[in-house]
Design a protein that fits this description.
The complex is a heterodimer of chains A (226) and B (512). With 226 residues, chain A is α/β, with parallel strands linked by helices. In chain A, 40% of the residues lie in helices and 20% in strands. Chain B is built from 11 helices and 12 strands. The C terminus of chain B is likely disordered. Classes of the chains: A alpha/beta (226), B alpha+beta (512). At the A-B interface, helix 1, helix 4, strand 5, helix 5 and helix 8 of A face helix 5, helix 7, helix 8 and helix 11 of B.
């Protein structure tokens, strides 16, 4: 079965044009013009990626994003008006994996979607179980446990953790993480990393304010404490 | 030219007025106090002396009349309560002064006093004997054919008066100093509202449009405060209305542009299936959609600069690495980058994605007017790092080198090289705005190697080590507070639907 994408956009013309462009990539596209319909469609159809415009009539994109996150780790791309507003951070904190600003080229969107759909690969096939204190990672199965309890991570959070776990103790710059996890180049938005690290901490750290596993290295980046 | 003395400041003038005023007042007061005191002291002294003088003169006359020549005149005079009594007796037609051997003798009597007493009338006179102020009194004593004089020293009066004068001068000086201090304080108080107004105006000019003065209970100031605040409010409203207009326009343009771009892309994937004429039309369409998109992005970015809503996300960046990446993102052609200097000298604080647009705009400009980018260079200069982009066009005449950075000035069009791309010249003005926001400068000059072509030079301040201490997540903890260019932040929350930055799509699109 092909990749299925749900686009939530209230402007019919944009929605249609984006659908046409995404269908050219060989993907199946579901459309919703408001948040309620989007959630309804999402619960009915197995969806691989969700594209949400922040500004929607009725319940807004943030809320749609949060509702989806309550039940699913599906990759979410949100569409914002501007790159340098609080919207981006708010959207990421609501659970989005990546963002685009309007007007974006559909090619860009498909590149983002492809990056999010990449499979997580274990950096070292021989090492299928990684252990850090109370934390255990099984990259091939996409499972993380803390103190024996499974922790639910989104695909992107998981990929970020696996990336950091590939060389425990090594400092990863934001650029490197952007490239490896999101497929961005030199000009990626470092806030993606920052918010995802923060989200990750709330899930895997005992005290997210004083992280023991995912540690900030001032001016340099992040590392996973072995 | 007419000479004009430098105008003194208001505060200095208030201070001078206060000082002069208290000086004149206190000295007038002191002088008159001294004058009156002196007069009354002397009068009092004179009255006392005169009363005693007449008493003494009576005693002397009576003694001499009653007792006759047998009396010891010296002893009599010495027993009198006067400082220097002098008795002159005419014996056998000869004058014979009698003096009890005190400080003053008959020699010290002024001639005019002697004369008037000789002529038969009592007299009184104030004068100085050997620098000492004295009062001399004299009266004829016809009953005994003699004259009686007294010389009274006034030195104690004088010394108490000079002590008083010294006190008064000191008091006047103290009062003047106090007046000056009061003037300083009062002028400060008076000018404080003006200083506040100045500071508020400066803040508003710097972009903090919501700056207002604190309300004042003072009826004299309340009018100023309220009209100033009213002005600020009107200004803010107007600027926000303009910004809102730009944001409304952007919102209106964004959606059709999005549809256009997506539809053109769908057509482009089927380009090979199209008949030749349709293909040519599609090429025109897609080219212009792209230009339209860039233009709208530039326009919106400019309007956001005008609204002061642009926030930088600075991070220390290696300039050579940055320029290589930015050039790679901006053009498919390989561009050589010449680097001079040590890596640590070439670190600058950049908002990478914004500065990438600067480079993209320079590349764009070179493509349109300068025959494409020929090379780029990075080197340390005094006060920062220089990033230069050179093209191989006809160059820009000296007289147009400032003008090219103005809006809609059409890049290098002045050189007459305007081709089919009569693009609107917003690109270079955005370059100037971005660089300015980074605290740098931009200029255009001739190529250093003597070839024809323009050389755009950006000078950026060196890396500020303070940025190193910043937590990575700072931008998240205070997402709405700009990290740099604080005074450029418009405080009224800008509408979400506002001007589209156009940073993300371009940078992402070309790199992913």
């Amino acid at each position: 079965m092909g990749t299925r994408i749900l686009t939530v956009e209230d402007d019919e013309r944009i929605r249609t044009a984006v659908k046409l462009a995404l269908e050219d990539e060989g993907w199946i596209v579901d459309e919703a013009d408001n948040g309620e319909d989007a959630l309804e469609l999402f619960s009915r159809n197995p969806t691989d990626v969700v594209l949400i415009d922040i500004m929607l009539p009725g319940i807004d994109g943030f809320e749609v994003c949060r509702s989806i996150r309550r039940t699913s780790d599906v990759p979410i791309v949100m569409v914002t008006a501007r790159a340098d507003t609080h919207d981006v951070v708010a959207g990421l904190e609501a659970g989005a994996d990546d963002y685009l600003t309007k007007p974006f080229a559909p090619k860009e969107l498909s590149a983002r979607i492809r990056a999010l759909l990449r499979r997580v690969r274990a950096s070292d096939p021989g090492n299928t179980h990684l252990r850090f204190g109370d934390l255990e990672l099984i990259p091939d199965e996409g499972v993380v446990t803390r103190g024996g309890q499974q922790v639910h991570l989104t695909k992107t959070e998981f990929r970020l953790l696996v990336e950091l776990a590939s060389s425990p103790g090594r400092v990863f710059s934001r650029e490197v993480l952007l490239e490896r996890v999101w497929g961005y180049g030199y000009f990626g938005d470092g806030r993606l990393v920052d918010v995802h690290v923060r989200r990750l901490r709330t899930k895997i750290e005992v005290d997210p304010a004083n992280p023991r596993h995912v540690v900030t290295v001032r001016g340099l980046g992040y590392k996973l404490q072995p | 030219m007419r000479f004009r003395p430098r105008q003194l400041g208001l505060r200095a003038r208030i201070l001078i007025a206060f000082t002069l005023g208290t000086f004149v007042l206190s000295f007038l007061l002191s002088a008159s106090t001294w004058g009156f005191t002196r007069q009354s002291q002397l009068n009092q002294r004179e009255d006392l002396a005169i009363a005693r003088f007449f008493g003494n003169a009576g005693i002397v006359r009576n003694r001499l009349l009653n007792v006759g020549a047998g009396v010891d005149v010296q002893q009599l005079l010495a027993s009198l309560p006067a400082s220097s009594p002098v008795l002159i007796l005419r014996v056998d037609g000869e004058t014979r002064p009698v003096n009890p051997g005190l400080r003053f003798t008959d020699q010290d009597l002024p001639v005019s006093l002697r004369t008037s007493v000789d002529e038969g009338s009592a007299a009184i006179m104030r004068y100085r004997v050997r620098e000492e102020p004295v009062l001399a009194l004299g009266m004829p004593l016809p009953a005994i054919d003699g004259e009686y004089f007294e010389i009274v020293s006034l030195v104690d009066v004088e010394s108490s008066l000079s002590i008083l004068a010294a006190y008064l001068i000191a008091a006047s000086l103290a009062t003047t100093a106090a007046g000056a201090a009061l003037g300083w304080w009062a002028s400060g108080r008076t000018l404080r509202p003006l200083t506040d107004v100045g500071r508020a105006a400066q803040a508003i000019a710097g972009g903090r449009l919501d700056t207002r003065l604190d309300g004042s209970d003072d009826p004299d100031l309340a009018a100023l405060v309220s009209s100033f605040n009213e002005m600020g409010r009107a200004l803010q409203e107007r600027i926000e209305r303009d910004a809102r207009f730009a944001s409304d326009v952007s919102h209106e343009l964004r959606s059709p542009l999005m549809t256009l771009a997506a539809s053109v892309e769908v057509l482009e994937t089927r380009r090979d299936d199209l008949p030749e004429r349709s293909r040519a039309a599609l090429d025109l369409l897609s080219e212009d959609v792209r230009r339209f998109q860039a233009l709208v992005a530039d326009l919106l970015e400019i309007s956001r600069f005008d609204a002061g809503a642009v926030q930088l996300d600075l991070e220390p960046v290696s300039a050579p690495e940055f320029i290589r990446q930015a050039l790679r993102a901006a053009t498919d052609r390989p561009v050589p980058v010449y680097v001079i200097g040590d890596p640590e000298e070439l670190v600058v604080d950049l908002d990478k994605r914004r500065m990438a647009r600067v480079i993209a705009n320079l590349v764009d400009n070179a493509d349109k007017y300068g025959g494409g980018v020929e090379g780029a260079g990075v080197r340390p200069v005094p006060g920062g790092v220089e990033i230069a982009v050179e093209d191989r066009g006809p160059g820009i005449p000296v007289e147009d080198r400032t003008r090219v950075f103005e809006r809609f000035s059409r890049g290098g069009a002045a050189a007459g090289s305007r081709g089919i791309h009569s693009g609107v010249g917003l690109g270079l003005s955005l370059v100037a705005e971005h660089v300015r926001l980074h605290g740098g400068t931009v200029r255009v000059e001739s190529r250093l190697d003597g070839e024809t072509g323009a050389r755009f030079v950006i000078e950026l301040p060196p890396h500020d080590p303070a940025l190193d201490d910043e937590e990575l997540e700072t931008s998240l903890d205070a997402p709405l507070v700009p990290r740099v260019g604080d005074d450029l932040a418009i405080t009224a929350a800008t509408d979400d639907a506002e001007a589209e930055a156009g940073v993300g799509p371009r940078a992402h699109g070309t790199l992913s």
